[in-house]
Design brief:
Number of domains: 1
Order of helices and strands: EEEHEEHEEHHHEEEHE
Helix content: 25-40%
Number of strands: 11
Shape: globular
Largest sheet: 5 strands, mixed
């Protein structure tokens, strides 16, 4: 059974907020000078129609380095071969830990698409796990357009299901606070934890 689409009038009052500290958001980026990176029309909770009036950009972040590593480095560049994830060396040595701030706020109000909040909407975790992004993008657009108070979405990480990932809308005012190269000891620990080998 496929996920329901967000028909107007059927979901707005059911959305439950969760507040996230801006300072807790993390990205592992190869291009820290371009952060935050705002995508549209490509990833899970992007605007499905970037050419429309009122379009929005989405920046994906995590609440821990582990989730960021699984969602970006392994998911985007890893291949599981002979019992290990092979990842190009540059993807490990050229990453920076990017932290964020907002000029207007210290916390963001996100629509919670996890746990009981997700189920109350008549949805399940396919919203975070399906390889077909058409329904999740429709939900992102509907949530974005429903009320300006929503700064983004919290969802369960598909790549590390014990952690949360965040789709932050451009209107949140998110900006880069600082970026620091991922240290060699951090890379080694992450590779050990996730069974990753540099190639």
């Amino acid at each position: 059974m496929s996920l329901r689409l967000p028909e107007p009038g059927t979901f707005e009052d059911l959305l439950r907020p969760v507040r996230i500290e801006v300072a807790s958001l993390i990205r592992l980026s190869r291009y820290p000078a371009t952060e935050p990176y705002w995508s549209s029309g490509v990833y899970r909770f992007d605007d499905p129609d970037p050419g429309r009036a009122g379009e929005f950009g989405t920046c994906y972040a995590a609440g821990s380095i582990d989730v960021a590593f699984a969602e970006s480095v392994i998911h985007e560049t890893g291949r599981f071969v002979d019992g290990t994830y092979e990842v190009p060396s540059a993807e490990l040595t050229e990453r920076s830990v990017v932290r964020f701030a907002c000029d207007r706020r210290k916390t963001l109000v996100l629509a919670d698409l996890t746990g009981a909040s997700l189920k109350a909407l008549g949805l399940n975790n396919d919203i975070s796990a399906s390889a077909d992004y058409s329904v999740s993008q429709a939900w992102a657009q509907a949530i974005h357009d429903a009320d300006a108070r929503w700064h983004g979405i919290r969802y369960v990480s598909r790549q590390m299901n014990k952690g949360y990932a965040y789709a932050i809308f451009e209107r949140s005012g998110l900006r880069k606070l600082r970026a620091e190269k991922l240290k060699a000891a951090q890379v080694d620990a992450l590779c050990d934890r996730f069974n990753v080998s540099a190639v």
